[in-house]
Amino acid sequence: xxxxxxxxxxxxxxxxxxxxxxxxxxxxxFMHKDLAESKKTAYRFQGQMTNLQKDFDGxxxxxxxxxxxxxxxxxxxxxxAIAAKILELKGGEDNHSEVHKLEMQQAEDKYNSLAETHxxxxxxxxGLQTTLVEKENRNLAVNIASQYVxxxxxxxxxxLLMMSxxxxxxxxxxxxxxxxxxxxxxxxxxxxxxxxxxxLKHFAKFPGSKGGFGGKGGSSETDGKVISRKDYEAKTPAExxxxxxxxxxxxD
Length: 252
What we know:
By secondary structure, this protein is mainly α. It has one domain. The protein is built from six helices and seven strands. It has helices at 33-89, 96-148, 154-164, 187-194, 229-233, 237-245; strands at 4-5, 19-24, 27-32, 166-169, 172-175, 226-228, 249-251. The protein is elongated.
């Protein structure tokens, strides 16, 4: 069964109610509503990821600037206090040893202040990087889940993917196979791996599919048979798509 048409007139009359207009770039097409909903979910999470990256870049710059300003202010205040104390002690010749101690303390305080600032910046930056990686992993998991399972379980299935198949390699989120090896970012290849996973394959919206939308599922008692339109409309979007994929004929 075709899940997308360029012209509304090409949609079979018995399936017209299952298709909606969908904007792809500058082109308007007519897409099966389950496929359209899955694509909308993927686009929405991609937009959230883009906004997060912008926020991260801006926040990183602000942290660096604020920390540097605070460190410089503290340094000037400390130097002014020590300079005043040194000036006071220099009033007598017997106070040279005390002056030396203060000068050494001043140097040590400068070093400690810089070291603390550097450690704080590194900690803040690491925390932001960790958050960004987690968001990237979740975005990839949701993108895959929206194309593999019914829309009502995308969120929970994406969490399973993050625990079993999604990881970060050199700062990039990747999908891995059962051996932990990265898989090409191709939905057909990813679905092939998921269909071999005994814990996840039964969640597929098109059981037995070889990947992507439109793949032929395994045989079942409804293959090549008819179903009343009333029974069809009572089913979930995923069940409807599965039936249409198997070529079931609707009757009034």
